[in-house]
Amino acid sequence: MTTLDTISVGQTVEVGKLSGEGTSLRRRLLDMGITPKTKITYVRCAPLGDPMQLDVRGYSLTIRKSDAALVEVL
Amino acid sequence: MSQKTIALLGNQNCGKTTLFNVLTGSNQYVGNWPGVTVDKVIGKISSKDWDVVDLPGLYSLSPYSPEEIVSRNYLLTDDYDVILNIVDASHLERSLSLTLELAAFGKPMVVALNMIDVMEKSGIKIDVDKLSEKLGIRVVDISASNRLGIDKVLDAVSNAQVPAVTNFFDEDISAKIDEVGKLLDDAKLSASARRFIATGIVQNDEIYLEDYKSSEKVMIAASRVRNDIEGKFNTDAQSYFPQARYQFIDSVIEECKISTESKTCMLSKAIDKVVLNRFLALPIFFIVVSLVYYGAMYFTSYLELIPFEGEEGTEYATITDWVNDNLFGGYVTDAVAKLCENAAAPEWLSSLAVDGVVGGVGAVLGFLPQIAFLFLFLSFLEQSGYMTRVAFVLDRIFRKFGLSGRNFIPMVIATGCGVPALMANKTIDNINERRIGLITTTFIPCSAKLPIITMIFASCFDGAWWFAPMVYALAIFSIVATGIILKKNRAFKEEVSPFVMEIPDYHLPTINNILKAVYERCRAFVIKAGTIIFAVVVIIWFLASFGFGEEGFGMVENVDSSMLAAIGSALCFIFAPLGFGSWQATVAVVNGLLAKENVVGTMAVVLGLDGEFEGGEADLNTALTQYFADMLGVEPTAALVPLLGLSFLAFNMWSVPCVAALGAMKRQLGSTKWWIFAMTYMCVWAYCLALVIFRIGGLVMGVLPFSFYTVVAFIVLGVFVYLLVRKDNSGLTPIRIPSRQV
């Protein structure tokens, strides 16, 4: 199982499941459009390696790696 | 034309506030920074007699942040007639997700498709009529920043229809949710409100679960729906709804898109390639911040711009000097003095007006030019979208001590003045980070504290080059240590809202919006100076000018016999452990509350120099060194004198800020309890810091004997180290917002 925080810069992945059921973070990620089968591109990380900048549904989203671990990717 | 109330809703940073300003002509603050609008703002469209309610920008109606909860509670009431939903055309998918959530409220609704120009530039065209038809909601295309399509919006709002039912959820599930809704035990709820709450319960919405957990039949019905969803779609209820929403949106957009030649925001991406480059990001950031800071200083304190008639003909002064010396120190003081003279005002009244009010309020307003320039540059960076990137770049560093990348901006502003800096904390949406931010922001020495630094620097430290850097290092140390100590505390784990933030595209800000932002912030600063400072000025002036003299109670010539001196004598024992237990030093500390630069002025007055020490600053330095030495009973050259100076400086620097900042702090913390905690913490922190510096520093340097207070200082140091390194064992706090916050 791969999670979103472990992919490398430039990679495009498809979202599988989201863990962390019942948390507001999970619901936020879903509401922001990180739903299963969505394509996500890892654009870059911040100078100190965290957080990461993602391209989701045509906009730019930044998320900490610890939070990205919630997202399983294919 | 009938009276209407319009609820304005949209994503953060979608141009909502710009549209609000265009509609109402109001001075609402606009920034290219997600989450600028935190309070609900109401404006009027005078031509129509309509009220527009500007709600906080949000991405969804889940209970993620206080703003979202405020907005959805508002939507559940019936106090509005039309929902006007602003949709950022360049981020259509994500924006329409909120649109579909809003449509569920069953209220007349209009969608304003904003930034259509930006989208068309990127090569995508949307068939607006088809979009209206597919969504079942009237869609109008506008450009709020160019004021295009505003009439169309007003027209659409006056004929707004309830969204045609476009049910994108499974019919069976919808019916079952409605059944759950019927079980809700509250007669006041409308059918659509029932559906909204029932959908929330099915999705394990913390707040509604809390409200209805005692109703067993609701809970059972809801868990049955959850099971149905899981059985039918092989996914949990929480992800089913957004998934279904986005599927529906994808199909709608597919049908409405005319061309799909994707060139999306090439410029923004190109800029980010440099600005957010892994190796360049930090250097660029430091250059930008230095330019902002030195730019503000250069224009106000170096550039001699303003001509005035001096003793030797026309002279030029910097803006800051002119405001302080010529405007407040000269024209205003003279005018007020003259006014008092002409009105034959009693002596005490003219003293109050000239020394108290003009002196005190003028000292604070003297910072206005610097602050205005700082705001000018910062507003540009904010509205252009750079500040969001700063938060992204710095987040990792700040997170280590319980803050986030967004806390950086307030700290830059704090080098100028704490009041606007505290106000800038408003944009931090994580309540823990905001609270720690509010407590630590004023640890940064503001420009009013500079005179104290200069005084101690020149007197006790004989102008050692490392003194100022050391003071700033101590300030940063105070912030970092405070962050680490407080973030481990349960009270700062109320809600762990993660750092999920949109990075908006760059916009070139309009001059109009920047000037509005500068005006709004300066206005807030001036109002603060005119109210709270005014009141405290009067009180301190009264205490310093009246007392029991030779002829009984009355106005006293000498501050020695004033009530302030009496209070100082009564309180000075508090500062004895720190080395400066004299009434003069105590009075200086108290006066510092009014405005920190008063500390220097007060010391000059109580040391017997008159107020005009500027010509003889050397006198003050000698006098202060002598005074400290006398207090300690040592030679002025003794090593203990600098320690006492540093202890005195530390308490003045890092205890509570001036009253104006305290007022801003109270407003931003939004609770008296937290405010009192913040003040207590700051005083304790500064006291302990000064104690350790004086007692342990003295012991280490071999100039102070071991005493009771040395023991206390060591205990303080021990407790501090414990607080710093203790395990953060409450790290497993669930991510949720307690409903009592709402």
UniProtKB/TrEMBL annotation, chain A:
<dbReference type="InterPro" id="IPR007167">
    <property type="entry name" value="Fe-transptr_FeoA-like"/>
</dbReference>
<dbReference type="Pfam" id="PF04023">
    <property type="entry name" value="FeoA"/>
</dbReference>
<dbReference type="InterPro" id="IPR038157">
    <property type="entry name" value="FeoA_core_dom"/>
</dbReference>
<feature type="domain" description="Ferrous iron transporter FeoA-like">
    <location>
        <begin position="2"/>
        <end position="74"/>
    </location>
</feature>
<dbReference type="InterPro" id="IPR008988">
    <property type="entry name" value="Transcriptional_repressor_C"/>
</dbReference>
<dbReference type="InterPro" id="IPR052713">
    <property type="entry name" value="FeoA"/>
</dbReference>
<protein>
    <submittedName>
        <fullName>Ferrous iron transport protein A</fullName>
    </submittedName>
</protein>
<dbReference type="GO" id="GO:0046914">
    <property type="term" value="F:transition metal ion binding"/>
</dbReference>
<keyword id="KW-0408">Iron</keyword>
Automatic annotation (TrEMBL), chain B:
<feature type="transmembrane region" description="Helical">
    <location>
        <begin position="561"/>
        <end position="580"/>
    </location>
</feature>
<comment type="similarity">
    <text>Belongs to the TRAFAC class TrmE-Era-EngA-EngB-Septin-like GTPase superfamily. FeoB GTPase (TC 9.A.8) family.</text>
</comment>
<feature type="transmembrane region" description="Helical">
    <location>
        <begin position="464"/>
        <end position="486"/>
    </location>
</feature>
<keyword id="KW-1133">Transmembrane helix</keyword>
<keyword id="KW-1003">Cell membrane</keyword>
<protein>
    <recommendedName>
        <fullName>Ferrous iron transport protein B</fullName>
    </recommendedName>
</protein>
<dbReference type="InterPro" id="IPR003373">
    <property type="entry name" value="Fe2_transport_prot-B"/>
</dbReference>
<dbReference type="GO" id="GO:0005886">
    <property type="term" value="C:plasma membrane"/>
</dbReference>
<feature type="binding site">
    <location>
        <position position="25"/>
    </location>
    <ligand>
        <name>Mg(2+)</name>
    </ligand>
</feature>
<feature type="binding site">
    <location>
        <begin position="10"/>
        <end position="17"/>
    </location>
    <ligand>
        <name>GTP 1</name>
    </ligand>
</feature>
<dbReference type="Pfam" id="PF07664">
    <property type="entry name" value="FeoB_C"/>
</dbReference>
<comment type="function">
    <text>Probable transporter of a GTP-driven Fe(2+) uptake system.</text>
</comment>
<feature type="binding site">
    <location>
        <begin position="35"/>
        <end position="39"/>
    </location>
    <ligand>
        <name>GTP 2</name>
    </ligand>
</feature>
<keyword id="KW-0547">Nucleotide-binding</keyword>
<feature type="transmembrane region" description="Helical">
    <location>
        <begin position="674"/>
        <end position="694"/>
    </location>
</feature>
<feature type="transmembrane region" description="Helical">
    <location>
        <begin position="279"/>
        <end position="299"/>
    </location>
</feature>
<dbReference type="InterPro" id="IPR006073">
    <property type="entry name" value="GTP-bd"/>
</dbReference>
<dbReference type="Pfam" id="PF17910">
    <property type="entry name" value="FeoB_Cyto"/>
</dbReference>
<keyword id="KW-0460">Magnesium</keyword>
<dbReference type="InterPro" id="IPR050860">
    <property type="entry name" value="FeoB_GTPase"/>
</dbReference>
<keyword id="KW-0479">Metal-binding</keyword>
<dbReference type="InterPro" id="IPR011640">
    <property type="entry name" value="Fe2_transport_prot_B_C"/>
</dbReference>
